[in-house]
Design goal:
seven-stranded parallel β-sheet, 2 domains, Rossmann fold, 15 helices, 14 strands
Length: about 425
């Protein structure tokens, strides 16, 4: 289906056209109608599926065609970065209609706090907020939920992981019982399902998320000892033309150590983690987005705020603890009709090898292993204790040469734009 098939507000349609949206993604096609009908929804959907536009477009259409003097929707998200991104998308989609929005988050100074307070008290049409900061303003009486029509919980699993579930429950206690509730989560653990049963009414349940990485991502792995990983990164990137490379590590201390070592051998390296204040994090992301910074080392939690279309290579410096985190990391590349590469470094430890085998089981196939360059010594054997997988993850990887290159040879395919 196409967006012109819907009878959206004329100003909203102009904004949709100006942003280059034409054909609906699967999740947009599945949820636009039910949201417009007022259905509650629980959707398993990761970043990059078109999820944000899937709920923003019907919300903005409702506000444009049936305006009120109250806040119509609250969108709760886990991080400041994601709140700012969604607020920017509201601004884009609402450019030709009279829809106001404000992102409310922590970490700011007194001026920013007062700006948030005024936005809540003057009833912006859409509030995009992190749980803790919104809870604080509610407790201080800065916001009245009278007239609220919709609550959106985006990345609910991440908010649960970050310990926000009690704040969300308290926030919901301030809201009208008669409302539409939309919940989106990249994963659907039992706690999320239990929570959904408490706050959603006869929800439409959809699963678009924890599938597999996009076919536009070429996945591969290196077996490499920890002491040789920095050399391998240098080998992959030195003299190459890649402009945007994202390197993941599982802890902020690992991010600091990796960035420190990489700065010794490569130029244009920065790090992003929770020890940086909010302004510093925003500046780092801005430089990376503008390609002033070539290599960014990040943790999983902050990666949720990295929504950049031009990332060419993702490196998993260590194996993610959870297969779904792997999908999320890999999803940072091959966006907006582009292709990308995702490489994972696997060391000799049985725990790490078993974790990667779980990823292969989730992918229903083996990830291609590239031979380690000879100058980096002997590679560990891949000998996990889990059951074998059934087939190769990417058929086009079969027979690819083990030349140590960051991009094994692949041929182009026709693909439809993904909005």
């Amino acid at each position: 289906m196409k967006f012109v098939d819907y009878s959206f507000d004329a100003g909203l349609m102009e904004a949709i056209d100006s942003m280059g949206y034409e054909t609906l993604t699967p999740i947009q096609e599945a949820v636009l109608g039910p949201i417009l009908e007022g259905r509650d929804i629980i959707g398993c959907a990761q970043t990059g599926t078109g999820k944000t536009a899937a709920y923003l477009i019907p919300l903005i259409n409702q506000i444009a065609t049936n305006p009120t003097n109250t806040t119509s929707a609250i969108i709760i998200v886990p991080t400041r970065e994601l709140a700012m991104q969604i607020d920017q998308q509201v601004a884009g989609l609402g450019y030709f209609v009279s829809v106001s929005s404000k992102a409310v988050y922590g970490g700011g100074d007194a001026v920013e706090y007062d700006t948030h307070r005024k936005a809540l008290m003057t009833n912006s049409d859409i509030i995009v907020a992190t749980p803790g900061k919104l809870m604080m303003h509610l407790n201080m009486g800065h916001f009245s939920s009278e007239g609220l029509r919709c609550l959106v919980l985006d990345e609910a699993d991440r908010m649960l992981d970050m310990g926000f579930i009690e704040d969300i429950q308290k926030i919901i206690s301030f809201l009208p019982e008669e409302r539409q509730t939309l919940m989106f989560s990249a994963t659907m653990p039992p706690k999320i399902r239990e929570f959904a049963k408490k706050i959603l009414k006869d929800p439409l349940e959809l699963n678009f998320a924890v599938s597999k990485p996009s076919e536009s991502v070429l996945q591969a792995a290196y077996l490499v000892n920890n002491e040789n990983k920095i050399q391998l990164v240098s080998h992959l990137l030195e003299g190459k033309e890649m402009k945007s490379v994202l390197i993941f590590a599982s802890t902020k201390q690992a991010v600091k150590n990796i960035a420190h070592e990489l700065k010794r051998v490569l130029n244009s390296v920065e790090e992003i983690h929770s020890d940086l204040d909010q302004q510093a994090r925003e500046n780092v992301l801005l430089r990376f987005r503008n390609q002033q910074t070539r290599i960014l080392v990040a943790t999983d939690v902050l990666a949720r705020g990295i929504d950049i279309d031009t990332i060419e290579l993702v490196i998993n410096y260590d194996v993610p603890h959870d297969p779904e985190d792997y999908v999320h990391r890999v999803g940072r590349t091959a966006r907006a009709e582009r292709e990308g590469v995702a490489l994972t470094f696997i060391n000799k430890e049985r725990k790490e090898q078993n974790a990667f085998k779980q990823i292969e089981i989730m992918l229903e196939g083996d990830v291609y292993k590239i031979s380690l360059p000879k100058e980096l010594g002997e590679a560990p054997e891949y000998n996990p204790s889990n059951s074998p997988t059934r087939r190769s993850t990417h058929p086009r990887n079969k027979g690819a040469k083990s030349n140590g290159s960051a991009r094994p040879v692949t041929k182009k395919r026709d693909s439809k734009p993904r909005k």
